[in-house]
Amino acid sequence: MARRNMAHVQAGTIDQAPDVLRVPASRYLDPGRFALELERVWRRLPLVLALSCELRESGDYRALEVAGVPVLLVRGSDGAPRAFLNSCAHRGAQIATEPAGRVRRFVCPYHAWSYDLDGALVAVFARDDFGDVDASCHGLVRLPVAERAGLVFGALDPAAELDLDTFLCGYDRVLAEFGFERWQLFARRSVTGPSWKIAYDGYLDFYHLPILHKASFGTGLPHRALVDAWGPHQRVSFPNPGLLRFADLPEAQWEAPELLAGVWTIFPHVSIATFDAGARAVLVSQLFPGPSVLESLTVQSYLVEREPDAAARDAAAKMFELLGTVVRDEDYATGLRQQRALASGARPEVLFGRNEVGGQRFHRFLERVIAAEDAELASVFRKGVP
Fold first, then answer.
1. pLDDT tens across 152-187, in order?
2. N or C: which end of the chain has fewer CB within 10 A?
3. Residue 165 located in a structural domain
């Protein structure tokens, strides 16, 4: 990737699609289309539900709601992650009501039925009074889960069949170069925003950086982008003249942080953007659909490579606050205004230029996933994006 980047720098070129892509505006606004996306994208594909570093020890858990499904993730006693529907077998109450923590077992706050880290029902409160119940048939509902490159992937459908290796298309081997399982969670927030696709378009787009963000951090940033792809998963970077200093050095001397810079996206909902403000860091943005087609929720997790000293901690805190402002007050505020304008119906389509390769790939692949039946889904990922 670095050598390809250097070649573009020396030639003064960027990646370009063959033509401009036209996307119907209704795909951002139509409730029927949104329901189809929930069914065929969000409830069929592996999603990034947690970070390995936040489930570091046995009993560490994270609870969240994704596309209307309450999910519970926990590190098991054997060191492997587990994923469950966050719902008690008794009356369906959510058993984990805090977003994160550490437990030895989960106890339902409604009637105190309790479960071990494998999701097995281990105790029924006042069991003699309740009556006979077969504990082996009343554990937590398991969801598919797997861990790759310091990220925990899970599916919302217990019967989901898409293999994670097929889904990732080899992308995890590159992401593993970060070593995220050794990083630390520095800070986290949630940000509400527009339609999930309007929000996600921005993560794939460098075209807007020096314009929309000129008052925050965009001054001097390039608007031209390069895109590397593994199936639908993409790394967006810019032609970087700084890489030319490596050209005559052995590759073993090339600096990994410089080589890994950019925005790494995981289809259909994650962005990992690199920063170096006081300490090497990334902002992991997990984008989830909201309760309607016009709403979304983004969980921003700021990870640092190692425990920062006082000065680096202050710089990291300032960067995290700046990024919250940028996303909320610039990206998503613009997206909400865009959404209202499209809802007027006066503009039937939106355009993705030849220079907006990331957005074009995302929308083309999204259409292929939605059109595919369950039996065809694996082949869609093996073929990639035309």
1. 999 999 999 899 999 999 999 999 999 999 999 999
2. C
3. no
Is residue 313 domain-shared with residue 343, that is, in the same domain? yes
pLDDT in tens, 223-261: 999 999 999 999 999 999 999 999 999 999 999 889 999
The answer to whether residue 195 is domain-embedded is yes
214, 138: one domain: no
CB atoms under 10 Å from CB of 95, counted, come to: 27
At 130-159, the pLDDT tens digits run 999 999 999 999 999 999 999 999 999 999
- For residue 49, give both structure tokens: 């539900």
Kindly state whether residue 121 falls inside one of the protein's structural domains.
Answer: yes
CA angle 314, 320, 326 (to 5 degrees): 135
**Which residue bears the tokens 């959404």?**
339
Ranges of residues in the chain whose predicted pLDDT is under 50: none
pTM value > 0.90: yes
Backbone phi and psi for residue 119, each to the nearest 5 degrees, phi listed first: 85, 5
Assess whether 25 and 15 both reside in one domain: yes
Q: Is residue 156 one of the residues assigned to a domain? A: no
